[in-house]
Design brief:
157 residues, single chain, alpha+beta
Length: 157
């Protein structure tokens, strides 16, 4: 995405480039195996946690990392724990600070999300469990909520 914005002095080119999307970290644990596989009737409770982090790597270059942690448990015993972190390196140049934060906090995680969903589903299935299909996450809404919380707490955006 490239756009010209004309200001008082010179034109500033807005540029967004996906440099790389990659698997950064993966972990799978199933402490109740093989015993859990012989239990005929089990209905696990699945808890999914999402974390997003962005950091600047250089002038106009950023990494956005998305982490999903899925924990399945029965009677307060962990059946499996899958944690996957995918990240991307992005060039974000010529945008205002608020726009850059929106891109890194919402747009980039939306780009990474399909990769991490597939990896979590495959990881759980390869662990011998029914495939875990994660629901789509609305990172635009989460980003807006996060910004509102910062405002409510009197912290700068």
């Amino acid at each position: 995405m490239t756009e010209q914005t004309v200001g008082d002095a010179a034109a500033v080119e807005q540029q967004f480039v996906i440099q790389k999307i990659y698997l950064k970290d993966v972990s799978f644990e199933s402490p109740q195996t093989p015993d859990i596989f012989v239990t005929s009737d089990w209905s696990p409770e699945v808890n999914v946690q999402v974390a997003n982090n962005a950091r600047q790597l250089g002038e106009g270059v950023f990494e956005t990392a998305l982490t999903i942690t899925a924990t399945a448990s029965v009677n307060n015993e962990t059946i499996y724990l899958a944690e996957v972190q995918y990240a991307g390196i992005f060039t974000v140049v010529g945008f205002e600070e608020a726009q850059t934060q929106q891109i890194l906090g919402a747009y980039c995680p939306n780009l990474i999300q399909p990769y991490i969903r597939e990896t979590v589903a495959d990881l759980v299935m390869k662990g011998g469990f029914p495939q875990l299909v994660l629901q789509a996450i609305n990172f635009d809404q989460l980003f807006a909520q996060h910004q509102q919380e910062r405002i409510d707490q009197g912290r700068p955006q």
